[in-house]
Design goal:
This protein is of the alpha/beta class. About 30% of the residues lie in helices and about 20% in strands. The structure holds S-adenosylmethionine (SAM).
Length: about 500
């Protein structure tokens, strides 16, 4: 048994995702399983905690052998006292060390897995210096850059479900677990990409009521048994809750990507192709108090409300995500842009704009203390999300964090190109009429339907580069019957002019 770091109770709670399920919710889940799924021959609870699911299962399926596993011995003692009868066996076990193939091999018939695995991510655990995680962490084979940008982060429960799926492949099974909704979707994506044929359903649960949590959660039911009450297609139906039959979404995979409304995604599939222009992220500096300036009566002030008198050379108008989402015009906020491209030396600022150089150096500690690894081994005052494209005069931008599809057309402000922040994505153009046509097309109903069917509004960043990059703007313009800007006439055009 690996030893778990025990720092304090709350860190321990995070490490083990230790939020026990109320009996009331377990009963509702088991009631639904009894109603809608074929009777199990064996029930497994892989992280059984204080045993609420075991108890409800024993009541709902009397006589069916039940096996619980749990890392916390104190919980096991409680559980043993709670559940009388010989059909329930509980074991002290670390999920990551159990050989699930062996555990399952001596169990009968249709196996039902129930429970509520920990709701915690590898990065939550890592940042606390804890160790409740699988040893082979990189199960999606992500590269170093994905690890740097956080793409390698994943939920422990996702790993657990995939581990169970691989152990159950040759058996009839139903897995019914309480998970974050995002984990349920990742299971759909993973199973589809890896040709694992399972049917699935997702039932919303009120996480606030049951766990005082603010994250979206659900009951995920997946099975390789094709029974009538289950949707037998590859698409998964999402229900509002455990009780009503109200369907909220039918999610599914299209062109290797998950769609929030698979029917509409298929209808708008004619627009799906690699976007001919490259969507870019806005400027990232992680130093807003120093780098962002606001225009007040007496001039520009920084985030500490100090008046800043520096040269105009490196100051550019700025629209932040909230400005883009609310269609505000430039003129209020500004940003210091220290580089024209990533990695460019910044010492030139000293000669070109001595006051700017002094201001930056006076505040160098704010830059040194930036946490992100991307600034390591870069020139002082480095920024990211910058390149020739940042300085193109016309832009179309959208904020990735807001729950609305609305593309904003941006013109230069007082002769300078407007920058957007790193919550935004944009296309840059040299010619105003091109930007205008593309903006009108992207705000059309055709494009809206395309995006709506692919966006999950409950995600942290619902609008992302992948989604934006998946629409062919030339096909869209063609469909709408607009004049095609010449930048689309050549194959694989970039919106960048040559030399930038
Ligand atoms: C969200 S709680 C749910 C407990 C129980 N399934 C329920 O529904 O009430 C997660 C449980 O997983 C247990 N756990 C966390 N990591 C584990 C591991 N590596 N092996 C086994 N159990 C683990 C925790 O101790 C905790 O009891």
């Amino acid at each position: 048994m690996r030893k778990g770091t025990r720092q304090d109770r709350s860190a321990r709670r995070v490490e083990f995702g230790d939020w026990q399920t109320p009996v009331e919710l377990c009963k509702e889940v088991l009631g639904l399983l009894k109603r809608d799924c074929p009777a199990p021959d064996t029930i497994i609870e892989p992280t059984c905690g204080e045993g609420a699911f075991l108890l409800s299962a024993a009541e709902t399926f009397p006589g069916v052998p039940i096996f619980g596993y749990e890392i916390n011995e104190l919980y096991l003692e409680k559980t043993r006292g709670l559940i009388p009868g010989q059909n329930v066996n509980v074991k002290h076990a670390d999920f990551f060390e159990v050989c699930w193939e062996r555990e399952i091999s001596n169990k009968d018939g249709h196996i039902l897995v129930i429970g509520n695995p920990p709701w915690v991510t590898i990065s939550d655990i890592g940042s606390l210096g804890l160790e409740n995680m699988p040893e082979k962490m990189n199960f999606k084979h992500l590269s170093g850059i994905d690890a740097l940008t956080g793409k390698s982060n994943f939920d422990i429960s996702e790993w657990m479900i995939l581990r169970l799926l691989s152990a159950l492949t040759k058996r009839n099974f139903t897995i019914a677990l309480l998970v974050k909704t995002i984990v349920a979707r990742k299971i759909l994506e993973f199973s589809s990409k890896n040709n694992i044929y399972i049917h699935g359903r997702i039932y919303g649960i009120d996480t606030k009521k049951y766990f005082e949590a603010s994250v979206d959660g659900c009951l995920l039911i997946i099975s390789n048994i094709n029974y009538t009450k289950f949707n037998s297609s590859k698409d998964w139906i999402c229900y509002k809750d455990l009780y009503s039959n109200i369907q909220t979404q039918k999610i599914g995979m299209i062109n290797g990507r998950i769609a929030s409304d698979i029917t509409s995604a298929i209808e708008t599939n004619y627009l799906e192709d690699t976007c001919e222009l490259e969507w870019r992220s806005g400027i990232k500096h992680d130093c807003s108090k120093i780098m962002e300036l606001t225009l007040h009566q007496n001039g520009l002030i920084n985030g500490f409300e100090k008046n800043i008198n520096i040269e105009n050379d490196y100051i550019f108008p700025l629209l932040k995500g909230s400005d883009i989402a609310n269609d505000r015009k430039p003129g209020k906020r500004f940003v210091i842009v220290t580089q024209k491209m990533i990695g460019e030396p910044t010492v030139f600022i000293k000669k070109n704009a001595p006051n700017t150089w002094k201001y930056l150096n006076d505040n160098i500690n704010f830059f040194i203390n930036r946490k992100s690894a991307i600034y390591k081994n870069q020139p002082n005052f480095s920024i990211f999300g910058v390149g020739g494209y940042s300085f193109l005069p016309y832009k179309i931008a959208i904020c990735g964090l807001y729950k609305k599809i609305f593309f904003v057309f941006i013109e230069p402000y007082r002769g300078k190109p407007v920058m957007v922040d790193d919550t935004c994505y944009f296309l840059g153009f040299n010619e105003k009429n091109h930007a205008h046509t593309v903006c009108k097309a992207l705000n059309s109903n055709e494009a809206k339907n395309f995006f709506e069917s692919r966006i999950f509004w409950d995600s942290k960043r619902p609008i992302n580069k992948n989604i934006l990059q998946s629409i062919s703007i030339s096909k869209l313009i063609d469909r709408l019957g607009y004049d095609m800007p010449y930048i689309f006439n050549k194959p694989k055009q970039s919106c960048l002019p040559f030399g930038i």
